[in-house]
Amino acid sequence: MKAWTVRQPWAGLIVDGIKDVENKGFRTHFRGRICVHAALKIWSGPEADDAPASAHQIYLGAVIGTVNIVDCIRNSRSEWAIPGMWHWVLAEPRALRSPIYVKGRLGLWDFPDGCLPLRHLY
């Protein structure tokens, strides 16, 4: 299964179904379910100060859930969309009951099959 490393607080907001778009400077043709990995570093930009709290923001350096990438567009109407960026449209987030601690990587990366038992999903 593909995985993607995202800094907090954004990873927690995605897994908890609050953030429905990820802003990127590049597009993706990938569609489907991916693991959301919370990076070891926290986003330090001023916009993070205004981000709402979510249950899964406490985890760092772990896969904390999954989400479907359903589209990649430029003009999303989501409140999370930043103009001029590519908007990876996200749907059907599922949080893990327990995080799976693993080293993250840049871009989409392969998370070993069988490491994400379905019984761990809420």
The top-level CATH class is: Mainly Beta
Radius of gyration: 13 Å
**Contiguous runs where pLDDT drops below 50 for at least 5 residues:** none
Spatial ordering of strands, largest sheet: 2-5-4-3-1-6
Task: Tally the helices.
Answer: 2
Distance between the termini: 18 Å
Overall CATH architecture? Roll
Indicate the proportion of strand residues: 35-45%
What is the helix/strand order?
Answer: EHEEHEEE
- What CATH calls the topology is Archaeosine Trna-guanine Transglycosylase, Chain: A, domain 4
CATH superfamily label: Hypothetical protein
In total, the number of strands is: 6
The averaged pLDDT comes out at: 90
- Gross morphology is globular
Q: How much helix, percentage-wise, in residues?
A: under 10%
Number of domains: 1
What structural class do the secondary elements suggest? mainly beta
Major sheet characteristics: 6 strands, mixed
Keywords:
Archaeosine Trna-guanine Transglycosylase, Chain: A, domain 4, mainly beta, 122 residues, single chain, 6-stranded mixed β-sheet, 2 helices
